[in-house]
Known about the structure:
Number of strands: 0
Low-confidence stretches: none
Oligomer: single chain
Amino acid sequence: MTAADTEIREVEKMFAVNVFGPMRMFRFFHRMLVESKGVVVNIGVRVVNVISGEVGTNILKSDLNRRLPVDSLYIPIEDTFVSHVRRTPGM
């Protein structure tokens, strides 16, 4: 279906299942997964075309001061996270 002909509600339902569902599951179980050295396996997604690399975007422009939550598992590498958020893609 073309973007112009797609019902937004259908896209929202798709994202609720295929994007936000796994994100919610991982957010809830991430500490147990890390402790058990477990993995998340996503079955049923077929990628037709993959284009790798970064593109310049303003999507995080208003997010330059983003910090990790104080209880994040990634606090030990917070400097790397901040550098990544503030980088210029392609540089």
